[in-house]
Amino acid sequence: MVGYAVISSEGMTPHEGGLDAVSGAAERLGEGQCLWVELDEEDEEETADVLGAVGLERLGAERGRRRHPKVDRVGDTYLIVIKTLWYVEDSNQIETGDLVLCTDGRVLVSIRHGEVDPVPSARERIAADAALRAEGAAAVVYALLDRVVDDYRTALEELGDAVDDLEREVFSDSRRDVIARIYSLIRETLEFRDAVKPLNWFATAIRRREASMPVFERSYFREVAGHLLRVEAEVDTCMSLLTTVLSAHQGQIGTWQNEDMRKISAWAALALVPTVIAGIYGMDFEHMPELGWRHAYPVVLTVMVVLCLLLYRGFKRNGWL
């Protein structure tokens, strides 16, 4: 069974049925009406059948063709592929899904894959706004894209909070090695950027009114394009900040290692003095200075302690201890 809805300025009527019902609904569309078919991408064969039933099979149903964000046009038919994103706080990871939109202006097929589903929010918005319903399939495309970009902004805020927390920890007095966390956030930010970067040209063209695609000439698409460009700029800012934090932390680690080496060298020098003196007097030669002197033992111990104290004071003054 396939869920679909007939949309007009008067209202939005949901239905459910097989391929024949969907095909019949597409054929019976009147003036000012559009058909919205909603699919969850679980069965690729069903997706191909639905696209064929509503006359959109020329766009292709192979999932391999929809791996990357893009906007394609075949005649008066559009294929829009956009990534859905959500942030998993427990693992500090960005997860992605897909939203594929196929439309010829009268029929729209939306195909969703992933945990985040922008369809319910867009459906409620279309059902509540008569002005949007009057715009037909273009308004549904707008509502879906706007919701996806809003999810981008939410995920970006959460990613930004994670980056800020990491930055504060790196520049705190703590001596924790967080290289693994930095690389993890860089990887997630790159995944975020890969989802939005391919749509830069598309958003720029809409803002400049150079999209050369009639469906995107509505003014509300320029608002979505502006939000998308701002998201991309903020993702680049996150990446720059993470790169700076990584360089700073690597410098910190080098400084910590130098400090540790100085401490180790200083303590080794302190231990060397009594070791050398004890080694000399432990040679057990018969004729050695002060062997017969009654105060030789306490004097030698005193010399050891004094030399160690002098070395300790010198190392402490120079910041080695």
Strand order of the largest sheet: 2-1-3-7-6-5-4
Count of separate DSSP helical elements: 9
Low-confidence stretches: none
Strand and helix order: EEHEHEEEEHHHHHHH
Describe it for me?
With 321 residues, the chain is of the alpha+beta class. It has two domains: 2-252, 2-Layer Sandwich (Beta Polymerase, domain 2), CATH 3.30.460.20; 258-317, Magnesium transport protein CorA, transmembrane region (Methane Monooxygenase Hydroxylase, Chain G, domain 1, Up-down Bundle), CATH 1.20.58. The protein has helices at 19-27, 44-53, 119-128, 130-134, 137-170, 179-196, 200-207, 219-281, 296-317; strands at 2-8, 11-17, 34-40, 70-74, 77-88, 93-103, 107-113. A seven-stranded mixed sheet has the order 2-1-3-7-6-5-4, with helices on both faces. A hairpin with a 2-residue loop joins strand 1 and strand 2. Helix 5 runs parallel beside helix 8 and helix 7 (200-207) crosses helix 8 (219-281). It is rod-shaped and about 120 Å long. It starts with a strand and ends with a helix.
